[in-house]
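Our consortium's second objective concerns turning raw sequence data into structural hypotheses that experimental partners can test. To show how far this objective has progressed, the report includes one record in full. It was chosen at random from the queue rather than selected for favorable results. The single chain below, 133 residues long, was entered without modification.
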Amino acid sequence: MINRVEKLSLLSEMISFAKGDQELKPIEYNFLLSIAKQLDICREDFDYLIENPINYIHLNSHSERIVQFHRLVLLMNIDNEKDPKEILRLYNYGLRMGLSHESISRVLYLMESFPNKIVPPDVLIDIFKVQYN
């Protein structure tokens, strides 16, 4: 299980990803707030992170990194806008997390074939299992 600082780091990373060069859209804010609640982070702390990001903390658990990558994929596709820069940023986030470039590329390729570009968790896990073994 990840600790509070790691949870705040994950949220901060997701907020940074969602903001890009602009402010959070309401749909992104609500999605991120729901993630904060899942991580047991209160709204006040979440709102604080929006204006005061914290440094990235590398997760030791491979499975936690896969879950975080999946959250980022969901976040990227939540507004149904396709931005090549965002896809590149997601790819780079995955690499920085220590995920294999083959798995990341496969997820990004396959997401186009799913409704709303939402890769089911079991498919995503299978993709990363192949590279992890």
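The partners drew two points from this record. The chain has two domains: 1-57, 59-133. The chain has a mean pLDDT of 89. Both points have been shared with the crystallography group to help prioritize constructs.
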